[in-house]
Write a structure and sequence with these properties.
Shape: globular
Order of helices and strands: HHHHHHHHHHHHHHHHEEHHHH
Strand order of the largest sheet: 1-2
Oligomer: single chain
Helix content: 55-70%
Strand content: under 5%
């Protein structure tokens, strides 16, 4: 009986936090309306944002007000944080889809897909940007901006107490920048916001108009990839704009803790990070390979081919999804290389998706340590270390095991998704490319993803994006805990 009372109290706390997050999320829906003084003719679309915002706020207020939990400074476990993250993200995606539906742009499946693509910073889209209102284009970019930082991270930086470690970790933030979570999240938002502002300024300086500069900076830093142009960054045919985008994509795919070390002037620590070294190595290897074996055959000049090879390598490994052109003319070798980069993904604790550089680096290092240990005397006790963020940490065996388990689960989900594509009649290379893009929250496409795509394909990609963004285990832990708690509650009554 006592445990049931504790259970009730804990779930009241969870409902309270979910209510707070819902109220705060309702404010996001109103942000596109700030552009109305510049685009007054779009006031006719304002209802599509105001109505969902009011409903979301009211429901959140009721959830917050009707909970009796008054204890302060209560730490959340990872599983409890997972429940809050799971429900907060699902609710945010559902309500964020409403503007697309109320304006009659998309049906339910398409709207959920677009909303999920925005919040998970994927960038796959079924919206026709040539006819979409500017409020909708802004809304897509805003979703990617806050989705990149993390919905819960944004809230933690402003409305929740500094002891929510479980909530912080549940959204994929394993590296604390500062001793308290609240300070860490504020530091993340300051770094993230400053980079975004710098990106807007740089885009304007190299010739992009203000509206496009705002949208593309938000999408690049969040490694999202939504563009205001049909041909993405390729629309501008500008090396200067491409170079700004390179910088923003690489910044976005770098761990926030690593950024923190760099901003404090700890350059040696920055370059000791395994993720940074692997990122540099992958770019150094894949750019010339793609240049020689694939892109070189598509362009008349070496500089043009090099531009394409650099851009597509960075956009794939950073899981951003901007592009210069279609992949329909690429050979299978080039397609396979991009698939590998999309599966690997960017930095842990960054805005990027994929398996993550840290896990790949750790697994390869473990193989090296295993081989090295074979030649050491049997009585030698050997400890292995890697740099992560600002810290040199011991690479314990459970770290390697967790990374390996995640890679296996990720690849199993990937192959399952590919099978679904194949069952719908798509060829193997296109199926592997498209679902690698969805699961890795990348956004590159070979043309399968569109408003005309089969609904089951869009739902497959939608679930893939969600699992890829919240990294599987958090979702599984949350769902299992809910079922176990409810089973215990009703069996004990």
């Amino acid at each position: 009986m006592r445990y049931i009372n504790v259970l009730k109290e804990r779930y009241q706390l969870l409902i309270k936090y979910i209510g707070i997050l819902m109220m705060a999320s309702s404010a996001f829906l109103l942000l596109p309306l700030l552009s109305l003084p510049f685009y007054p003719n779009e006031i006719k679309y304002s209802y599509a944002f105001i109505i969902p915002s009011i409903i979301l706020f009211v429901i959140g207020f009721i959830a917050w007000k009707n909970t009796k939990h008054n204890r302060e400074e209560v730490s959340l476990s990872l599983k409890e944080g997972g429940i809050i993250v799971l429900f907060s993200w699902v609710i945010a995606v559902l309500f964020s889809a409403l503007p697309f539906m109320l304006i009659n742009m998309l049906n339910f499946t398409q709207a959920i897909f677009e909303s999920m693509s925005g919040w998970t910073t994927t960038g796959l889209s079924v919206v026709d940007v040539t006819t979409a209102p500017k409020l909708i284009l802004l809304w897509r970019s805003i979703m990617q901006f806050f989705g990149g930082a993390g919905l819960v991270v944004v809230m933690l930086s402003s409305v929740l107490h500094p002891y929510g470690f479980g909530l912080y970790n549940a959204e994929g933030r394993s590296d604390q920048l500062l001793p308290h979570v609240k300070r860490s999240t504020k530091a993340i938002m300051i770094i993230y916001g400053s980079y975004t502002l710098g990106g807007i300024i740089l885009y304007i300086l190299v010739g992009m108009n203000v509206f496009d500069a705002f949208n593309h900076s938000l999408a690049a830093l969040s490694t999202g990839g939504f563009s205001t142009q049909v041909n993405s960054i390729g629309h501008y045919n500008s090396i200067s704009i491409e170079m700004v985008t390179w910088i923003l994509m690489l910044i976005g795919t770098t761990n926030f803790a690593t950024h923190f070390a760099l901003l404090k002037g700890r350059f040696k620590v920055f370059f000791k990070n395994g993720e940074i070294r692997l990122l540099m190595l992958l770019n150094a290897v894949f750019i010339p390979i793609l240049m020689y074996f694939t892109v070189n055959n598509l362009y008349d000049s070496v500089p043009a081919g090099l531009r394409r090879a650099i851009f597509e390598t960075i956009t794939a490994i950073s899981t951003t999804g901007f592009s210069l052109d279609t992949f329909n003319t690429w050979n299978l070798f080039g397609i396979f290389c991009i698939i590998i980069l999309m599966l690997i993904g960017g930095g842990t604790g960054s805005t990027a998706g994929g398996i993550k550089l840290y896990r790949i680096y750790l697994i390869f290092k473990s193989i090296y340590w295993e081989i090295k240990g074979y030649f050491l005397p049997e009585d030698v006790v050997n400890k292995n270390y890697i740099w992560r963020g600002e810290k040199r940490i011991e690479a314990k065996s459970n770290f390697v095991m967790e990374a390996a388990n995640y890679v296996v689960l990720y690849l199993f989900t990937y192959f399952l998704g590919v099978l679904i594509f194949l069952a719908h009649g798509y060829n193997l290379s296109d199926s592997m490319f498209e679902f690698a893009s969805a699961l890795g929250t990348v956004g590159l496409s070979v043309g399968i993803t569109s408003a005309d795509a089969p609904p089951f394909i869009l739902w497959t990609e939608t679930f893939g994006m969600f699992l890829g963004r919240l990294e599987f285990f958090v979702i599984f832990f949350a769902i299992i805990k809910i079922f176990k708690d409810f089973h215990y509650y009703y069996s004990a009554k």
